[in-house]
Amino acid sequence: MQIEMKGIDKSFGSNQVLKDAGFVLADGEVHALMGENGAGKSTLMKILTGVYTKDAGTIYVDGREVNYKNLQEAEKAGIVFIHQELNVLYDLTVEENLFIGKEIKGKFGFCNQKAMRKKAEEALGRLGVHISPAEVMSNLSVGQQQMIEICKALMVDAKVIIMDEPTAALTQSETLVLFDVIRSLKKQGISIVYISHRMEEIFELCDRISVLRDGTYIGTKNIPETNMNEIVKMMIGREIGERYPVRNCKIGDTVLKVKDLTSSGVFHNVSFEVKAGEVLGVSGLMGAGRTEIMQAIFGNLHCDSGSIEINGKEVHIKSPIQAMKCGIGFITEDRKVEGLMLEESIEKNIALANLPRVSNHHVMDRKKEDDLVKKGIEELHIKCFGPDHECNNLSGGNQQKVVFAKWIYTDPKILILDEPTRGVDIGAKKEIYTIINELAAKGVAIIMVSSELPEVLGMSDRIMVVREGEVRGIIGREEANQENIMTLATGGTI
């Protein structure tokens, strides 16, 4: 299926999000759609699939002008959108998820379970994945759930599948499986629109890249004829320089010391320390226990034994409130569920974490609140219409900056960052890296959990590798490379 979108405009009220946008999708290609957060990539795809109505422009499918009114119309035509937040019903089985609203009926209107089971097995077999149709969705990993979404697309005879940040929550092994599936779909003549910020993935997997900037189509490049620097320049309109800004700050005394920390069945005998002005990277495969260790330090997970010292004094942290009183901040992995109140404004989100700072004798001081929020917007370069802007309507990168602002103004001694740049474009990543370096320069001890090896290597002074709830090793900048990290992460020694 060939798709051409030309001159697409779209505004929400006075805010124009697309202006002369578009792209061309060829038969059986994997086509990357790139741009900064808020560039209009998802909006363009939502117009294609009938979620939004365009203000201007034309859409051609196989040379015929179309205007789908809803997702169902687009799906019927063979275009399926797999969103970043998967559309699955966790309490139902795989089979029930595949056929909901599309049940195969037998006599007297009852579901033909045998026929549905057979069709589900055929679709799963076509993907080459081994998942039982009778398995409950909640028992599957995110990667497996994503395979079920792709399976849904195949069952409606999809000719184009749009994938929005498909690897954001996948393990490395699940990502490899997904890539194999995408290549298989390509061989079957199915076209893929691949929306992602992960450059390495795109250059490995895709045939062409189309770039949007500020809602406008910038251009399309064949993968063999371009490079990462050229794409970045197209995305942000300028050279970005080094991906990881240089940090030259003095590393001070030990701020946090963790000794033999154990949570039964989760992690055991975890020991490490972090110094003032240091960035300690934490690496390991998904499910290794990295997040759980951080949650325990923050008082969000019970520990059976071990100790935590801050500035040489042992502390007993039983809750996040106690952790905050001890000077610990925690930017969680899932900003949409744990990091932000999405329906509330930037102002409310920042103020809530800083109530002592914006109140007098337990009474809110409006001026202090306004000054703090304006300071956060200016210092972190949050692109918004003002303090009242709902977080739900911000791009992913700007949402993450709001989360940073919340915690930065609590003046933490220790800041834990769990996947701080997940779902964030390369320009916003650079800004977040700069914020991290500025905090380190002020003497904040930083722990950064990341699944992106280049990020860990580029930003860390030392790297702690976790495997199956154990610290397998802590390596310095000099000996840190991808091979050594993966060796430790998979159970080897260096």
Care to describe what's here?
Helix 4 (113-127) crosses helix 5 (142-155), helix 12 (346-352) runs parallel beside helix 14 (396-408) and helix 14 (396-408) packs parallel to helix 15. The protein is globular and about 70 Å long. It is an alpha/beta fold. The protein has two domains: 3-236, 3-Layer(aba) Sandwich (Rossmann fold), CATH 3.40.50; 254-489, P-loop containing nucleotide triphosphate hydrolases (Rossmann fold, 3-Layer(aba) Sandwich), CATH 3.40.50.300. A hairpin with a 2-residue loop joins strand 4 and strand 5 (64-65). The model has no long low-confidence stretch (mean pLDDT 89). Helices cover 33% and strands 25% of the residues. 43% of the residues are buried. It has 17 helices and 22 strands. A six-stranded mixed β-sheet has the order 6-7-8-3-9-10, sandwiched between helices. Strands 16-19-20-13-21-22 form a six-stranded mixed β-sheet, sandwiched between helices. Strands 2-1-4-5 form a four-stranded antiparallel β-sheet, covered by helices on one side.
Fold blueprint:
Elements lengths: L2 E10 L2 E11 L4 E5 L6 H8 L7 E6 L2 E2 L5 H6 L2 E4 L11 H6 L13 H15 L14 H14 L4 E5 L7 H16 L3 E5 L3 H7 L2 E6 L2 E7 L5 H9 L17 E10 L3 E9 L3 E5 L6 H8 L7 E6 L2 E3 L4 H6 L2 E4 L3 H5 L6 H7 L6 E2 L2 E2 L1 H14 L16 H13 L5 E5 L7 H16 L3 E5 L3 H7 L2 E6 L2 E7 L5 H8 L5
Parallel strand pairs: 3-8, 3-9, 6-7, 7-8, 13-20, 13-21, 16-19, 19-20
Antiparallel strand pairs: 1-2, 1-4, 4-5, 9-10, 11-12, 11-14, 14-15, 17-18, 21-22
